[in-house]
Write a structure and sequence with these properties.
6-stranded mixed sheet, 15 strands, 7-stranded mixed sheet, 33% helix, 12 helices, 2 domains
Protein backbone atom coordinates (compact mmCIF):
# COMPACT_ATOMS: atom_id res chain seq x y z
CA UNK A 1 0.00 0.00 0.00
CA UNK A 2 1.49 3.28 -1.15
CA UNK A 3 0.04 6.28 0.61
CA UNK A 4 0.58 9.84 1.68
CA UNK A 5 1.05 11.12 5.22
CA UNK A 6 -2.11 10.56 7.23
CA UNK A 7 -3.73 8.53 4.43
CA UNK A 8 -4.48 5.61 6.74
CA UNK A 9 -1.56 3.27 6.03
CA UNK A 10 -0.98 2.38 9.70
CA UNK A 11 -4.67 1.74 10.32
CA UNK A 12 -4.78 -0.47 7.24
CA UNK A 13 -1.78 -2.51 8.39
CA UNK A 14 -3.17 -2.84 11.92
CA UNK A 15 -6.58 -3.98 10.72
CA UNK A 16 -4.91 -6.53 8.41
CA UNK A 17 -2.84 -7.96 11.26
CA UNK A 18 -5.94 -8.14 13.46
CA UNK A 19 -7.90 -9.90 10.71
CA UNK A 20 -5.28 -12.57 10.00
CA UNK A 21 -4.49 -13.14 13.68
CA UNK A 22 -8.17 -13.71 14.49
CA UNK A 23 -8.81 -15.66 11.31
CA UNK A 24 -11.63 -13.42 10.12
CA UNK A 25 -13.14 -14.62 6.81
CA UNK A 26 -12.32 -11.46 4.85
CA UNK A 27 -8.64 -11.81 5.78
CA UNK A 28 -7.69 -15.47 6.13
CA UNK A 29 -9.19 -18.97 5.94
CA UNK A 30 -7.95 -19.60 9.48
CA UNK A 31 -5.96 -17.73 12.10
CA UNK A 32 -2.34 -17.14 11.13
CA UNK A 33 -0.31 -17.97 14.22
CA UNK A 34 3.18 -16.60 13.46
CA UNK A 35 3.43 -12.98 12.33
CA UNK A 36 6.42 -10.64 11.88
CA UNK A 37 6.13 -6.87 12.40
CA UNK A 38 9.05 -4.90 10.94
CA UNK A 39 9.47 -1.16 11.41
CA UNK A 40 12.22 1.30 10.52
CA UNK A 41 13.41 1.08 14.16
CA UNK A 42 12.14 -0.83 17.16
CA UNK A 43 11.00 2.42 18.79
CA UNK A 44 9.12 3.31 15.62
CA UNK A 45 7.50 -0.10 15.41
CA UNK A 46 6.45 0.06 19.04
CA UNK A 47 5.18 3.65 19.02
CA UNK A 48 3.37 3.47 15.67
CA UNK A 49 2.58 -0.12 14.71
CA UNK A 50 1.74 -1.47 18.16
CA UNK A 51 0.91 1.31 20.64
CA UNK A 52 0.00 4.18 18.32
CA UNK A 53 -3.51 5.66 17.94
CA UNK A 54 -3.98 3.61 14.75
CA UNK A 55 -1.80 0.72 15.96
CA UNK A 56 -2.63 -2.93 16.54
CA UNK A 57 -3.74 -2.54 20.16
CA UNK A 58 -6.07 0.33 19.27
CA UNK A 59 -7.99 -1.55 16.56
CA UNK A 60 -8.93 -4.48 18.81
CA UNK A 61 -11.96 -4.71 21.05
CA UNK A 62 -11.07 -5.16 24.69
CA UNK A 63 -12.03 -8.84 24.81
CA UNK A 64 -9.94 -9.78 21.76
CA UNK A 65 -6.92 -7.56 22.39
CA UNK A 66 -3.51 -9.28 22.41
CA UNK A 67 -1.14 -9.07 25.36
CA UNK A 68 1.80 -6.80 24.64
CA UNK A 69 5.19 -7.61 26.19
CA UNK A 70 7.59 -4.79 25.25
CA UNK A 71 10.61 -6.49 26.82
CA UNK A 72 10.01 -9.61 24.71
CA UNK A 73 8.93 -7.54 21.69
CA UNK A 74 5.94 -9.81 21.34
CA UNK A 75 2.14 -9.66 20.96
CA UNK A 76 0.16 -12.73 22.02
CA UNK A 77 -3.53 -13.26 21.20
CA UNK A 78 -5.89 -15.37 23.32
CA UNK A 79 -6.19 -17.85 20.41
CA UNK A 80 -2.43 -18.50 20.42
CA UNK A 81 -1.42 -16.22 17.55
CA UNK A 82 1.91 -14.46 18.15
CA UNK A 83 3.44 -11.41 16.45
CA UNK A 84 7.13 -10.57 16.95
CA UNK A 85 8.46 -7.04 16.48
CA UNK A 86 11.71 -6.43 14.57
CA UNK A 87 13.80 -3.44 13.57
CA UNK A 88 15.04 -2.94 10.02
CA UNK A 89 18.25 -1.64 11.59
CA UNK A 90 19.12 -5.23 12.51
CA UNK A 91 18.58 -7.55 9.51
CA UNK A 92 20.27 -10.45 11.28
CA UNK A 93 17.55 -10.51 13.93
CA UNK A 94 15.34 -12.09 11.26
CA UNK A 95 17.68 -15.06 10.88
CA UNK A 96 16.09 -18.14 12.42
CA UNK A 97 12.46 -17.11 13.13
CA UNK A 98 9.79 -18.35 10.71
CA UNK A 99 6.42 -16.86 9.87
CA UNK A 100 3.13 -17.21 8.05
CA UNK A 101 2.65 -13.47 7.58
CA UNK A 102 4.51 -10.17 7.91
CA UNK A 103 3.68 -6.47 8.02
CA UNK A 104 6.51 -4.16 6.89
CA UNK A 105 5.90 -0.50 7.68
CA UNK A 106 7.61 2.50 5.99
CA UNK A 107 9.85 0.17 4.01
CA UNK A 108 11.10 3.02 1.80
CA UNK A 109 12.82 4.52 4.89
CA UNK A 110 14.61 1.35 6.02
CA UNK A 111 18.37 1.82 6.36
CA UNK A 112 19.21 -1.75 5.31
CA UNK A 113 16.21 -2.30 3.10
CA UNK A 114 17.56 -5.00 0.77
CA UNK A 115 19.27 -7.01 3.51
CA UNK A 116 16.26 -6.83 5.84
CA UNK A 117 13.81 -7.78 3.12
CA UNK A 118 15.99 -10.71 2.02
CA UNK A 119 16.23 -12.07 5.56
CA UNK A 120 12.47 -11.77 5.95
CA UNK A 121 11.87 -13.78 2.78
CA UNK A 122 13.89 -16.71 4.11
CA UNK A 123 11.63 -16.76 7.16
CA UNK A 124 8.33 -16.77 5.25
CA UNK A 125 8.04 -20.56 5.23
CA UNK A 126 5.06 -21.50 7.41
CA UNK A 127 1.51 -22.30 6.37
CA UNK A 128 0.09 -22.94 2.92
CA UNK A 129 0.18 -19.35 1.69
CA UNK A 130 2.64 -17.00 3.42
CA UNK A 131 1.56 -13.38 2.94
CA UNK A 132 3.16 -9.99 3.42
CA UNK A 133 1.84 -6.43 3.55
CA UNK A 134 4.01 -3.38 2.95
CA UNK A 135 2.70 0.06 3.96
CA UNK A 136 4.91 2.99 2.99
CA UNK A 137 5.13 6.47 1.64
CA UNK A 138 6.93 5.79 -1.64
CA UNK A 139 10.43 6.72 -2.60
CA UNK A 140 12.07 5.59 -5.86
CA UNK A 141 14.14 2.80 -4.31
CA UNK A 142 14.89 -0.34 -6.37
CA UNK A 143 12.91 -2.69 -4.13
CA UNK A 144 9.69 -0.69 -4.46
CA UNK A 145 10.20 -0.47 -8.21
CA UNK A 146 10.48 -4.25 -8.35
CA UNK A 147 7.24 -4.58 -6.42
CA UNK A 148 5.44 -2.33 -8.88
CA UNK A 149 6.74 -4.38 -11.82
CA UNK A 150 5.84 -7.74 -10.24
CA UNK A 151 2.45 -9.11 -11.36
CA UNK A 152 2.24 -11.13 -8.13
CA UNK A 153 2.16 -7.95 -6.04
CA UNK A 154 -1.22 -6.31 -5.44
CA UNK A 155 -0.83 -2.52 -5.24
CA UNK A 156 -3.20 -0.19 -3.40
CA UNK A 157 -2.82 3.60 -3.24
CA UNK A 158 -4.22 6.23 -0.90
CA UNK A 159 -3.87 10.01 -0.82
CA UNK A 160 -3.83 12.16 2.28
CA UNK A 161 -6.98 13.84 0.99
CA UNK A 162 -8.79 10.48 0.97
CA UNK A 163 -8.65 10.49 4.77
CA UNK A 164 -9.46 14.17 5.23
CA UNK A 165 -12.40 13.42 7.54
CA UNK A 166 -9.99 12.03 10.15
CA UNK A 167 -7.34 14.76 9.90
CA UNK A 168 -7.11 18.14 11.59
CA UNK A 169 -8.42 20.97 9.38
CA UNK A 170 -5.36 23.04 10.28
CA UNK A 171 -3.12 20.29 8.86
CA UNK A 172 -5.12 20.18 5.64
CA UNK A 173 -5.02 23.95 5.24
CA UNK A 174 -1.38 24.49 6.17
CA UNK A 175 0.33 21.39 4.78
CA UNK A 176 -1.87 20.22 1.93
CA UNK A 177 -2.49 23.78 0.80
CA UNK A 178 1.21 24.54 0.69
CA UNK A 179 2.63 21.36 -0.83
CA UNK A 180 -0.18 20.05 -3.07
CA UNK A 181 1.13 19.37 -6.56
CA UNK A 182 4.80 19.93 -5.73
CA UNK A 183 7.33 17.11 -5.93
CA UNK A 184 7.37 16.75 -2.14
CA UNK A 185 3.60 16.94 -1.96
CA UNK A 186 3.07 14.34 -4.64
CA UNK A 187 5.34 11.96 -2.77
CA UNK A 188 4.31 12.71 0.82
CA UNK A 189 0.62 13.54 0.27
CA UNK A 190 -0.43 11.67 -2.88
CA UNK A 191 1.77 8.61 -2.45
CA UNK A 192 3.24 8.93 -5.95
CA UNK A 193 6.58 7.44 -6.91
CA UNK A 194 8.52 10.48 -8.11
CA UNK A 195 11.90 10.27 -9.80
CA UNK A 196 13.95 11.90 -12.53
CA UNK A 197 14.92 10.06 -15.68
CA UNK A 198 18.70 9.82 -16.11
CA UNK A 199 19.73 12.06 -18.98
CA UNK A 200 16.51 14.10 -19.00
CA UNK A 201 16.84 17.77 -19.91
CA UNK A 202 14.95 18.87 -16.78
CA UNK A 203 15.09 17.73 -13.16
CA UNK A 204 12.39 18.13 -10.55
CA UNK A 205 14.76 19.82 -8.11
CA UNK A 206 15.58 22.44 -10.72
CA UNK A 207 11.89 23.18 -11.28
CA UNK A 208 11.07 23.07 -7.58
CA UNK A 209 13.69 25.54 -6.42
CA UNK A 210 12.33 28.25 -8.73
CA UNK A 211 8.61 27.58 -8.25
CA UNK A 212 6.52 30.59 -7.18
CA UNK A 213 2.95 30.98 -5.95
CA UNK A 214 2.16 34.05 -8.03
CA UNK A 215 3.55 35.82 -11.06
CA UNK A 216 4.53 39.51 -10.92
CA UNK A 217 3.20 42.01 -13.47
CA UNK A 218 4.24 40.72 -16.89
CA UNK A 219 5.40 42.70 -19.88
CA UNK A 220 4.34 40.08 -22.44
CA UNK A 221 2.19 36.94 -22.32
CA UNK A 222 1.80 34.33 -25.03
CA UNK A 223 -0.22 31.16 -25.43
CA UNK A 224 1.59 28.49 -27.47
CA UNK A 225 -0.28 25.79 -29.38
CA UNK A 226 1.26 22.57 -30.62
CA UNK A 227 -1.56 21.17 -32.80
CA UNK A 228 -2.00 17.42 -33.37
CA UNK A 229 -1.23 16.01 -36.79
CA UNK A 230 -4.82 14.88 -37.32
CA UNK A 231 -8.27 15.28 -35.84
CA UNK A 232 -8.83 11.60 -35.03
CA UNK A 233 -9.50 10.53 -31.45
CA UNK A 234 -6.24 8.55 -31.47
CA UNK A 235 -4.18 11.59 -32.46
CA UNK A 236 -1.66 13.21 -30.14
CA UNK A 237 -2.92 15.77 -27.65
CA UNK A 238 -3.00 19.44 -28.55
CA UNK A 239 -0.32 21.11 -26.45
CA UNK A 240 -1.52 24.44 -25.01
CA UNK A 241 0.78 26.29 -22.61
CA UNK A 242 0.70 29.92 -21.45
CA UNK A 243 3.79 31.80 -20.28
CA UNK A 244 4.87 35.37 -19.73
CA UNK A 245 8.00 37.44 -19.16
CA UNK A 246 8.53 40.36 -16.79
CA UNK A 247 10.49 43.56 -17.35
CA UNK A 248 13.59 41.95 -15.88
CA UNK A 249 13.62 39.12 -18.39
CA UNK A 250 12.41 36.35 -16.08
CA UNK A 251 9.80 33.98 -17.50
CA UNK A 252 6.76 32.54 -15.73
CA UNK A 253 4.94 29.44 -16.92
CA UNK A 254 1.34 30.28 -16.09
CA UNK A 255 -0.84 27.40 -17.18
CA UNK A 256 -0.92 24.06 -18.98
CA UNK A 257 -4.25 23.68 -20.77
CA UNK A 258 -3.20 20.79 -23.03
CA UNK A 259 -6.27 19.01 -24.40
CA UNK A 260 -6.76 15.39 -25.45
CA UNK A 261 -9.58 13.86 -27.43
CA UNK A 262 -10.96 17.17 -28.65
CA UNK A 263 -11.93 18.07 -32.19
CA UNK A 264 -10.03 20.98 -33.81
CA UNK A 265 -12.75 23.58 -33.16
CA UNK A 266 -12.84 22.51 -29.52
CA UNK A 267 -9.11 22.81 -28.77
CA UNK A 268 -8.94 26.01 -30.82
CA UNK A 269 -11.73 27.47 -28.70
CA UNK A 270 -9.88 26.38 -25.57
CA UNK A 271 -6.67 28.10 -26.70
CA UNK A 272 -8.51 31.29 -27.61
CA UNK A 273 -10.36 31.29 -24.29
CA UNK A 274 -7.06 31.02 -22.43
CA UNK A 275 -5.65 33.83 -24.58
CA UNK A 276 -8.63 36.02 -23.67
CA UNK A 277 -8.62 35.17 -19.97
CA UNK A 278 -4.92 35.96 -19.55
CA UNK A 279 -5.14 39.01 -21.83
CA UNK A 280 -2.23 37.57 -23.77
CA UNK A 281 -0.38 39.32 -26.58
CA UNK A 282 -0.33 36.50 -29.16
CA UNK A 283 -1.02 32.88 -29.96
CA UNK A 284 2.11 30.97 -31.03
CA UNK A 285 1.16 28.15 -33.43
CA UNK A 286 3.47 25.48 -34.85
CA UNK A 287 2.81 25.02 -38.57
CA UNK A 288 4.75 21.80 -39.25
CA UNK A 289 1.80 19.50 -38.65
CA UNK A 290 -1.67 20.83 -39.27
CA UNK A 291 -0.53 24.41 -39.08
CA UNK A 292 -2.79 25.75 -41.80
CA UNK A 293 -5.67 23.81 -40.36
CA UNK A 294 -4.90 25.30 -36.94
CA UNK A 295 -4.94 28.81 -38.39
CA UNK A 296 -8.23 28.09 -40.07
CA UNK A 297 -10.00 26.81 -36.99
CA UNK A 298 -8.65 29.67 -34.89
CA UNK A 299 -9.94 32.10 -37.52
CA UNK A 300 -13.37 30.50 -37.23
CA UNK A 301 -13.32 30.84 -33.45
CA UNK A 302 -12.02 34.42 -33.34
CA UNK A 303 -10.59 36.15 -36.40
CA UNK A 304 -9.18 39.01 -34.32
CA UNK A 305 -6.65 36.93 -32.40
CA UNK A 306 -3.04 37.72 -33.43
CA UNK A 307 -1.12 34.59 -34.42
CA UNK A 308 2.63 34.04 -34.67
CA UNK A 309 3.40 31.09 -36.91
CA UNK A 310 6.51 29.06 -36.07
CA UNK A 311 8.05 26.16 -37.92
CA UNK A 312 10.36 23.48 -36.55
CA UNK A 313 13.62 23.14 -38.49
CA UNK A 314 15.38 21.03 -35.85
CA UNK A 315 14.45 17.98 -33.80
CA UNK A 316 12.53 18.23 -30.53
CA UNK A 317 15.60 17.63 -28.36
CA UNK A 318 17.66 20.33 -30.09
CA UNK A 319 14.77 22.79 -29.80
CA UNK A 320 14.21 21.96 -26.14
CA UNK A 321 17.82 22.10 -25.01
CA UNK A 322 18.23 25.92 -25.07
CA UNK A 323 14.99 26.23 -23.09
CA UNK A 324 16.26 23.78 -20.46
CA UNK A 325 19.36 25.97 -20.14
CA UNK A 326 17.10 28.89 -19.21
CA UNK A 327 15.79 26.75 -16.33
CA UNK A 328 19.34 25.92 -15.25
CA UNK A 329 20.11 29.64 -15.20
CA UNK A 330 17.17 30.22 -12.85
CA UNK A 331 15.33 32.38 -15.38
CA UNK A 332 12.12 30.33 -15.61
CA UNK A 333 9.55 29.95 -12.82
CA UNK A 334 6.51 27.70 -12.69
CA UNK A 335 3.53 29.42 -11.13
CA UNK A 336 2.00 26.83 -8.84
CA UNK A 337 2.09 23.11 -9.66
CA UNK A 338 1.91 21.97 -13.28
CA UNK A 339 1.89 18.25 -12.64
CA UNK A 340 1.49 16.70 -16.11
CA UNK A 341 3.79 19.22 -17.77
CA UNK A 342 6.52 18.66 -15.18
CA UNK A 343 6.22 14.89 -15.52
CA UNK A 344 6.77 15.26 -19.25
CA UNK A 345 9.74 17.61 -18.89
CA UNK A 346 11.51 15.35 -16.40
CA UNK A 347 10.96 12.31 -18.61
CA UNK A 348 12.25 13.84 -21.86
CA UNK A 349 15.72 12.72 -22.94
CA UNK A 350 17.66 12.27 -26.18
CA UNK A 351 15.36 9.43 -27.21
CA UNK A 352 12.15 11.29 -26.38
CA UNK A 353 9.72 10.18 -23.69
CA UNK A 354 10.04 6.72 -22.18
CA UNK A 355 6.46 6.00 -23.28
CA UNK A 356 7.33 6.77 -26.90
CA UNK A 357 4.44 9.21 -27.26
CA UNK A 358 4.73 12.78 -28.47
CA UNK A 359 5.77 15.39 -25.84
CA UNK A 360 2.93 17.77 -26.69
CA UNK A 361 3.02 19.75 -23.46
CA UNK A 362 6.78 20.19 -23.65
CA UNK A 363 6.58 21.27 -27.30
CA UNK A 364 4.08 23.99 -26.48
CA UNK A 365 6.23 25.16 -23.55
CA UNK A 366 9.31 25.27 -25.76
CA UNK A 367 7.52 27.38 -28.38
CA UNK A 368 6.22 29.78 -25.73
CA UNK A 369 9.56 30.33 -24.00
CA UNK A 370 11.44 30.47 -27.29
CA UNK A 371 9.18 33.31 -28.41
CA UNK A 372 9.48 35.15 -25.11
CA UNK A 373 13.21 34.73 -24.46
CA UNK A 374 15.15 33.34 -27.40
CA UNK A 375 13.64 34.74 -30.55
CA UNK A 376 15.13 37.79 -32.24
CA UNK A 377 12.59 40.58 -32.44
CA UNK A 378 11.60 41.41 -35.97
CA UNK A 379 8.80 43.77 -36.91
CA UNK A 380 6.14 43.19 -37.92
CA UNK A 381 6.09 39.86 -36.09
CA UNK A 382 2.37 39.47 -35.31
CA UNK A 383 -0.33 39.04 -37.89
CA UNK A 384 -4.07 39.24 -37.33
CA UNK A 385 -6.14 36.49 -38.87
Amino acid sequence: MLGGRGAGKTRTGSEWVRGIALGEPDFAESAMRRIALIGETFAGARNVMVEGPAGILAVHARDERPTWSPSLRKLEWPNGAVAQVFSAEDPDSLRGPQFEAAWADELAKWRHVEETWDMLQFGMRLGTHPRQMVTTTPRPIPLLKRFLDDPKVAVARAKTADNAANLAPVFLDAVVGRYAGTRLGRQELDGDMIEDRPGALWTRDLIEVHRVAFAPPLARIVVAVDPPASSSKRADACGIVAAGVDDGGAAYVLEDATASGLKPPEWAAKAVALYRRLQADALIVETNQGGEMASGVIREVDASVPVVSVRATRGKYLRAEPVSVLYAQGRVHHVGALRELEDELCDFGPGGLTSGRSPDRMDALVWALTDLMLRERKEPRVRAL
